[in-house]
Amino acid sequence: MVFAAKQQSPPTIIVEIQNIVNDSFVSRLNKYCLNANDEYGCKPISIIFSIKKTTKSIFEKSSIRTSTSFARTLPSYPWAEECILLDADTIKEHINEKPLHPLVALTIFFTQQKQNIRDCLRNDDVTIQNLYVIAKTLYEPKMSSLKSLSKDFNSIYLESRNHMSQALEILSKDNNDVENNKRAATVLQEGIKIVDEYAKRHKTQHGEASLPSSSSPSSLQDQPNGRRMDWKDCHSEGAKQGLFNEYQDGNSIKSMYYSISTPSRRKRNIAGAQNPAALKIPQLQAIIDEAIGSSSSSSSPPSTEEETSNTEHVNSTVISSSNEIIRT
Predict the structure, then answer these.
(1) Residue spans with biased composition (Low complexity) (predicted)?
(2) Residue 327 falls within a domain, yes or no?
(3) Distance (Å, rounded) from C-alpha 38 to C-alpha 42?
């Protein structure tokens, strides 16, 4: 993230949340900082949260930050004012302090990644508690939607299975009986109506659904990454690995995929990937501002963050000091 100041103080701040900090990531961070310098006319301060690992080559280049000994700094001249590195190792001597420094608390939150606050280290600390409140506020709507979807999926499964069982029972009596065949067809049509009702409900709740018809080709469908999905091959490969046992063929996998992945959701996901600053988190900015403000009076060496080509980049965003997102 980049907290871009609109005035002299506080400075522009680039925040990177990184799984693995290594040389290739630092090269990218260099570009981020130069871009921020071009955009806002001042060298930024970079704060790196290393989640899983800081490579030996990076650690050896770093030094303890004199004003905040729980952090290390990396050489950043001339592309950044300062580069601050935090990970589980840098803060380990400070995790018992009361209260926790906001950046120590934030590092604990990022590196531990506990879903429940009861499992998180120092869950008695106010900053840790506030971070979990923020996370809960952000994810509650998503969890509510998933619970509703799960409940409806269970209902549609039971009702559809019941109608199919009735149809099979009718047909098993006498396949040549025209009336039996008509009754079976009626029962199956009722089952289709139930499925359509659930599809329509979720289409209304989650935006336009792209539910393919049973007669549509199953081999080619657009994917968000621009490639095409071969649902038949998907089912075949999954079956080899012991997956998809509950799906009859590629069509059934495709139908389930589109029932829970609407175009509007895909557009949001793509937008989020292109602009990780899609969410405003003023509480997080307040923690960063407080931490930087308390130590900005002293100058110390910079520190930086990096990632290998096969390492997941957790987040990189640009936000202003007035809680307004500027750009990514």
Answers:
(1) 210-220, 294-303
(2) no
(3) 8
